[in-house]
Design goal:
Blueprint (H helix, E strand, L loop, with lengths): L6 H9 L5 H15 L1 E2 L10 H7 L1 E2 L1 H14 L4 E9 L9 H4 L5 E11 L2 E5 L6 H14 L3 E2 L2 E2 L23 E6 L2 H6 L6 E2 L2 E2 H24 L10
Parallel strand pairs: 1-2
Antiparallel strand pairs: 3-4, 3-8, 4-5, 6-7, 9-10
Helix pairs in contact: 1-4, 2-4, 3-4, 6-8
Length: 234
């Protein structure tokens, strides 16, 4: 399957499939999971879905926004759902030169999607398979349940019928902010946590620019490449 680079191309590809709702939803989920690696871009939480696709890296909020747009594009009802998590889940994700700027609490989003009349809550598409395997190996060696952007028991496989999380866990949740349709308004609100000294981190990342982001993603690639694993071709 050739790689699509725009939301329109992906919607056309998966929307025209003749398979049932569950199979269609799983195929789209798996495509995004493996073709947009876990990582970051300079727009962070303000990026547009097409940019995330073209850049090829995205974190929770970037990929959740993308997933909602794609699900809706092929006919599913879907929403970005925001919660607050402790920053410990990101320990090891960032270089030390950046990690000190992280707030104690971070804003995370997953997706609520309705498949065959049933609501599912998922963020299993966020962590690509090679990275998940490598990060779990590191957590096991370090004896930690949490870090590198995942939990030791994270999953990134979804059956299209139930909840599945590669990052979120209800036991970690500090606050539940519910479904968010107006992202810009949410990012401007006091509910949004991903800030440094009151400044949204996406503003800081834009100042750092592509070079700084590339260093961060290179760090994640170094983790990803420590385990020899051939990812599935969705």
């Amino acid at each position: 399957m050739t790689e699509a680079k725009t939301v329109k191309e992906i919607v056309e590809r998966f929307g025209s499939a003749t398979s049932g709702e569950v199979d269609k939803a799983i195929a789209l989920h798996d495509y995004v999971r493996e073709n947009v690696k876990f990582g970051f871009n300079k727009y962070l939480d303000e990026n547009q879905p097409d940019y995330t696709l073209a850049f090829g890296y995205g974190h929770c909020n970037a990929k959740s926004r993308l997933m909602v747009v794609l699900f809706r594009g092929i006919g599913f009802e879907a929403y970005q759902h925001f919660v607050v998590l402790p920053k410990e889940i990101l320990r090891g994700v960032f270089l030390r030169s950046v990690s000190w700027m992280l707030p104690k609490e971070i804003s995370h989003s997953y997706v609520d999607v309705k498949i065959d009349g049933k609501w599912c809550a998922i963020d299993s598409f966020i962590i690509d398979t090679p990275y998940l395997k490598a990060a779990q190996v590191r957590l096991a060696k370090e004896g930690r349940p949490l870090g590198y952007g995942i939990r030791s028991d994270s999953v990134n496989i979804w059956d299209g019928k139930s909840d599945a999380f590669s990052q979120f866990d209800r036991k970690l949740m500090i606050e539940d902010h519910g479904r968010v349709d107006n992202l810009e308004a949410y990012l401007r609100s006091s509910k949004y946590r991903t800030k440094f000294l009151g400044i949204r981190l996406n503003s800081i990342l834009r100042l750092i620019g592509e070079t700084g982001v590339a260093l961060g993603n290179s760090h994640l690639d170094s983790i990803r490449n420590t385990v020899s694993f051939i990812a599935p071709n969705p």
